């Protein structure tokens, strides 16, 4: 050292930011080749998938609630809410359904039934379940995030859905039902028999998509139903709704008629409905259900915003 305590030929180091910037991703991960390190841990990423860890698969036992970053609430119900969440490492988006468990046996059984269906019904026509947790009185279910919104969202934008698209939607609904185990189908059939008048069945909603109106219209002197009990009374006392024959094809009218029967024994099975002419009459046409939803426009902002 010289008298001033300084090195006669000091080494000029580049600023720290310039030295490490090429190793840091925008999300704050330190990356070098196949190595990834961030606040959630360290991982070696396969060279066959450069730049990102492998995506999370349904029922992945390595997935935990701590891996998720809450973006915002996207839905609310009487028993809980649904949040849009993002996996910190893979950047995948999911829907996190959080349910407050109470002491009522009926609530516990309903949640148990939903969890069983999620475990046993992984098919392309159903929303995928990635994992479920219970902690401190809360049941958390990590589900596939459907960024196109719901049929109810679609109906707000298009008002009515054409028959060919309804046929495609019906086929997927029926196929999803067919993928549900028989034992759960029987449980669901029993539940639907009791609650269809209150919650509305999918066949009623199908008719609403076609006509743009709820199948049961209140009397002319009323703006709406005064209570759910009044609506139930109207459903019980009146014949099942039907599709106007002058507006729709005979095939659609027949399909609706077979679906809306009040007595469960009078309704067709999933297999019988799959063979109905309406469900299959547009199979040979140039129909793209995905493009139809895209063209209608999603009510949900692009995920890139998050």
Automatic annotation (TrEMBL):
<dbReference type="GO" id="GO:0005524">
    <property type="term" value="F:ATP binding"/>
</dbReference>
<dbReference type="InterPro" id="IPR011009">
    <property type="entry name" value="Kinase-like_dom_sf"/>
</dbReference>
<keyword id="KW-0547">Nucleotide-binding</keyword>
<protein>
    <recommendedName>
        <fullName>mitogen-activated protein kinase kinase</fullName>
        <ecNumber>2.7.12.2</ecNumber>
    </recommendedName>
</protein>
<feature type="domain" description="Protein kinase">
    <location>
        <begin position="68"/>
        <end position="306"/>
    </location>
</feature>
<dbReference type="GO" id="GO:0004674">
    <property type="term" value="F:protein serine/threonine kinase activity"/>
</dbReference>
<dbReference type="Pfam" id="PF00069">
    <property type="entry name" value="Pkinase"/>
</dbReference>
<dbReference type="GO" id="GO:0004708">
    <property type="term" value="F:MAP kinase kinase activity"/>
</dbReference>
<dbReference type="InterPro" id="IPR000719">
    <property type="entry name" value="Prot_kinase_dom"/>
</dbReference>
<keyword id="KW-0418">Kinase</keyword>
<keyword id="KW-0067">ATP-binding</keyword>
<keyword id="KW-0723">Serine/threonine-protein kinase</keyword>
<feature type="binding site">
    <location>
        <position position="97"/>
    </location>
    <ligand>
        <name>ATP</name>
    </ligand>
</feature>
<dbReference type="InterPro" id="IPR017441">
    <property type="entry name" value="Protein_kinase_ATP_BS"/>
</dbReference>
<comment type="similarity">
    <text>Belongs to the protein kinase superfamily. STE Ser/Thr protein kinase family. MAP kinase kinase subfamily.</text>
</comment>
<keyword id="KW-0808">Transferase</keyword>
């Amino acid at each position: 050292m010289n008298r001033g305590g300084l090195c006669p030929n000091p080494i000029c180091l580049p600023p720290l930011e310039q030295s490490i910037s090429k190793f840091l991703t925008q999300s704050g991960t330190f990356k070098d080749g196949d190595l990834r390190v961030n606040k959630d841990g360290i991982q070696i990423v396969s060279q066959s998938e450069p730049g990102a860890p492998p995506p999370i698969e349904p029922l992945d036992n390595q997935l935990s609630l701590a891996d998720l970053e809450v973006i915002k609430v996207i839905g609310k119900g009487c028993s809980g809410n649904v949040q849009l969440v993002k996996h910190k490492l893979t950047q995948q988006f999911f829907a996190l359904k959080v349910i407050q468990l109470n002491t009522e046996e009926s609530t516990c059984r309903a949640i148990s039934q939903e969890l069983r269906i999620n475990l046993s019904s992984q098919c392309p026509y159903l929303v995928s379940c990635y994992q479920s947790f219970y902690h401190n009185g809360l049941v958390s279910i990590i589900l596939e995030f459907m960024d196109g919104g719901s049929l109810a969202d679609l109906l707000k934008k298009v008002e009515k859905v054409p028959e060919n698209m309804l046929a495609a939607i019906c086929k997927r609904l029926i196929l999803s039902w067919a993928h549900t185990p028989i034992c759960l189908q029987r449980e669901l059939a029993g539940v639907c028999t009791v609650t269809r008048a209150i919650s509305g069945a999918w066949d009623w909603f199908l008719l609403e998509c076609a006509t743009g109106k709820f199948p049961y219209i209140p009397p002319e002197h009323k703006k709406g139903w005064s209570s759910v009990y009044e609506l139930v009374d109207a459903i019980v006392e009146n014949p099942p709704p039907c599709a106007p024959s002058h507006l729709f094809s005979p095939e659609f009218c027949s399909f609706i008629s077979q679906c809306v029967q009040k007595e469960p024994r009078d309704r067709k099975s999933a297999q019988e409905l799959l063979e109905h002419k309406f469900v299959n009459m547009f199979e040979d046409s140039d129909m793209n259900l995905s493009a139809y939803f895209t063209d209608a426009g999603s009510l949900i902002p692009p995920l890139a915003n998050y």
